[in-house]
Design goal:
With 581 residues, the protein is of the alpha+beta class. The chain has five domains: 80 residues, Phosphorylase Kinase, domain 1 (2-Layer Sandwich); 170 residues, Transferase(Phosphotransferase) domain 1 (Transferase(Phosphotransferase), domain 1), CATH 1.10.510; 88 residues, Phosphorylase Kinase, domain 1 (2-Layer Sandwich), CATH 3.30.200.20; 157 residues, Transferase(Phosphotransferase), domain 1 (Orthogonal Bundle), CATH 1.10.510.10; 51 residues. 37% of the residues lie in helices and 18% in strands. The strands form six sheets. It has a five-stranded antiparallel beta sheet with strand order 1-2-3-5-4, with helices on one face. Strands 11-12-13-15-14 form a five-stranded antiparallel beta sheet, with helices on both faces.
């Protein structure tokens, strides 16, 4: 097989719908995995169409526990393919058969799968085919979920597979042993809860090397080394009614974190975290390390008394944000993350804050927001900024990852005054302070404008500047004119031409919400320019039809001469009508 830009090596996997090869991306001389759709699916036009549509979304999934799709294309034989990062390791199905994983590793793998599912579900992407064969484990026991959305394209193989493992297609998609009861009726029933059912089957199998078929025994009965608390987690996942299953994968992850109490962490990580809470070690239990780098760390702890989750942020050699944290600890607001305490010395600055279970906005920007979904979040961000500015608190670092969500979906702003580092951005660009302005109310307004722009157009879309002129994304014109005007006023290069404050932004957003928000059905995608043009065509065509009917009625009333005119132009009207529809 020949693929432009890639050297295809040996086959490393095969399923009912695709074959996977190891290869080399020649431009970067790095190993990759190439997943090629099988030839027998090429006569299914809907398969190819879905592949094109889904791959654009899947390629945007950026999460440490999800396989990264880096390219796509069509072979010379017309077969669509994905190019993915290559993981040196085994799939989970193989590791379960080997039965060499410790109990801590098994639970940690399950937690990582939950993190991947949480990220995908927050972006309204359902996997549909969670099973051990779709999870890769590298040599450091990091888990990677693959085939997000690709389960749409499964095709009956005709091979003599085990019935419990056979992939079904048509109105029913997925692997039978891992399918929620409702999916046996129709793939249209796929949901977050159907993915959690599949996870429950996978988790049971990961712990016991058995499938939970029929009236199965609880995991702790099969293997006494399994904590009994896990029995209830799996039982909840495998409930026959979707409404009886957990609300989210994040809920399962948090339960496992409480159970593990940091057992999955390396000793050196635990020691660094311990040093962060030396004076309160007896009050807090370490659950997880969210982030560690040269600038500091973010830890997840549990209050041993209240059993609440807490986030403790440690910043090294920087006190930026300390003043703001101290002020906000005494200034609560419903749309600002609660600060429970802040302390500092010459070398380190520590903030203790509430833990929000809904993740951050950065992880929800794969698709654009419909106006009905946009307004509540934008208004909450704006309310938070009004309150902060009224109390002489400038954010200075407003960006999607500093906007967090409660489990109910309410937005809260975090990290006021914190410095930002751009080591991960090769270009070092700060899109939220593109002109290098000093921290100010007007600079915060510009940052909020960029965030709103991303929400409405998609996270990949950022305002571009050329010769001091704003170059908007092509889909910007799909927004209502008044919404465009609001964004443009927030994004002015000259601060003097922006809004004077967030109160004015709030006023305009509320007017827009009253006009556009309630009437828009919920859903992440805004209408495309093509859709709008088609709508316009239909309206014009309908008007022509009405004129035609009116003409016939007029002719029938006023005689044959008028009817002759209508007949002479009927062919033209018919041609116009057909061209428009």
């Amino acid at each position: 097989m020949q693929l432009d830009g890639y050297q295809v090596q040996e086959r490393i996997g095969q399923g009912g719908m695709a074959t996977v090869y190891k290869g080399v991306q020649q431009s970067l001389n790095r190993p990759v995995a190439l997943k090629v759709l099988k030839k027998k699916l090429l006569d299914r036009s809907e398969v190819k169409a879905r592949f094109e549509m889904e791959s654009l979304i899947i390629a945007r999934l950026k999460h440490p526990n999800i396989i990264d799709v880096i390219d796509r294309g069509i072979t010379i034989k017309g077969q669509p393919y994905f190019v993915m990062q290559y993981v040196e390791g085994d799939d989970l199905k193989t590791l379960i058969k080997k039965d060499e994983l410790s109990m801590v590793r098994r639970i940690h793998i399950a937690m990582q799968i939950c993190k991947a599912l949480t990220y995908a579900h927050d972006n309204e992407i359902i996997h549909r085919d969670i099973k051990p064969a779709n999870v890769l484990i590298d040599r450091q026991f990091n888990a990677y979920v693959l085939d997000f959305g690709i389960a749409h394209f499964c095709e009956k193989t005709g091979e003599q597979n085990d019935t419990a493992q056979q992939t079904r297609v048509g109105t029913v998609m997925g692997t039978a042993a891992y399918m929620a009861p409702e999916l046996h009726a129709s793939a249209d029933n796929a949901s977050v809860q159907s993915d959690l059912y599949a996870f429950g089957v996978l988790f049971y199998e990961l712990l016991t090397a058995k499938l939970p078929l029929g009236r199965f025994e609880p995991p702790s009965v099969v293997n006494p080394k399994i904590p009994k608390a896990i029995d209830q987690i799996i039982e909840n996942c495998l409930a026959s009614e979707p409404s009886q299953r957990p609300d989210s994968a994040g809920q399962i992850k948090n339960a496992l974190l409480q159970l593990m109490r940091g057992a999955h962490l390396a000793p050196e990580q635990k020691e660094r975290a311990k040093q962060t809470v030396t004076k309160a070690e007896d009050k807090f239990a370490l659950l997880d390390v969210i982030k560690e780098d040269q600038y500091g760390a973010v830890y997840l702890f549990e209050d041993k008394t209240q059993h609440d989750f807490l986030v403790i942020k440690k910043r090294l050699n920087s006190h930026s944000g300390f003043r703001e944290s101290k002020l906000l600890s005494n200034l609560p607001h419903v749309n600002i993350v609660k600060i429970k305490g802040a302390s500092s010395n010459e070398r380190v600055f520590i903030t203790v804050m509430e833990y929000l279970k809904g993740g951050c906005l950065q992880d929800r920007l794969i698709q654009s927001y419909a106006l009905a979904e946009f307004f509540p979040i934008a208004l909450q961000i704006t309310e938070a900024m009004i309150f902060a500015h009224q109390n002489q608190i400038i954010h200075g670092n407003l960006r999607p990852k500093n906007i967090l969500f409660t489990s109910e979906g309410n937005a809260k702003v975090s990290d006021f005054g914190f410095d930002e580092h751009y080591g991960e951005d090769a270009a070092g660009a700060n899109w939220y302070n593109y002109f290098g302005e000093e921290k100010s109310v007007k600079a915060d307004i510009y940052a909020a404008g960029v965030i709103f722009y991303q929400m409405l157009l998609g996270g990949q879309c950022l305002p571009q500047w050329r010769n001091k002129k704003l170059i908007t994304h092509e889909s910007f014109s799909d927004l209502p004119a008044s919404m465009r005007q609001t964004l443009l006023k927030m994004l002015q290069m000259n601060p003097a031409e922006r809004y004077d404050g967030f109160s004015a932004v709030l006023s305009d957003l509320k007017k827009l919400e009253a006009f556009y928000g309630a009437g828009q059905a919920k859903g992440r995608r805004i209408p495309s320019t093509i859709q709008k043009r088609n709508y316009a065509k239909v309206m014009i065509a309908a008007s022509l039809l009405i004129l035609c009917v009116a003409g016939v009625m007029y002719a029938s009333k006023f005689g044959n001469e008028s009817m002759g005119i209508i007949q002479r132009y009927s062919h033209t009207i018919q041609t116009w009508w057909l061209s428009f529809i």
